[in-house]
Design brief:
Helix content is 31%, strand content 20%. The protein has 261 residues and is an alpha/beta fold. Strands 5-4-1-13-14-15 form a six-stranded parallel sheet. The relative contact order is 0.18.
Amino acid sequence: MTDYEAAILDVDGTIVRGEELLPGATDGLRTLEAAGCSRLLFSNNPTRGSDHYRETLAPHGIDVDPETVLTSATVSAEYLAATHPGERVYLVGSDRLESILEDAAVELTTEPDEAEVVLGSFDDTFSYGTLWSALQALEGDVPFYGTDPDATVPIDDGEIPGSGAMIAAMEAVAGREPDAILGKPSSVAATAAMDRLAADPRNTLVVGDRLDTDIALGNRAGMETALVLTGVTDRADLADVGADAEPDHVLESLAAVDTLL
């Protein structure tokens, strides 16, 4: 038997896929609640704020307090507001992320030559022109961040390119990597999660479907990790996984979390 104070749960691929609830998700959430685990939902979706997941899960009978939800968008906004106050941020990203940044009092600019910070993220209008402007914004030693490393994003009928693909293109033209990726599995993300939970990392369980983000986040922060096979990772992917992304447990779905309690 293992006693957990808290659980950090991925959302897309663990609880939902697109707007659809995954089988067993409700059972798993109820099991954690009955065990007295504090719960934090953490999505690497850079186009959504905390309120979105309350609205998404409410029709399924799952009550979510926005204060117990983080996304790569909200973490990025909080980080930039705290570390680059008053500096002009050039964003390659969505209108929704722009709104989340503005709500956090992050100053934005649409002029590449005015950029004091550059943030790369998911942008479904990404084009040659976008990349050219990003190259101009990244001239010199301007700080360069990314919201999340996810190269693809699961949707109802497959996958679409994600932030990681756009950030990789920006890296290629600028000739340098981002100074930091702010969402999972970064130390910035881990700190943001533990600040919300106020729990001992050694007594915290991370559950998610991605080895390189969810599982790596927990492993790097000294948490216990469980991979669910309801998202982008299957058992074949475990054959060549490195130590940084090797899960402590593999579950068919979130419903099987009861086997760890």
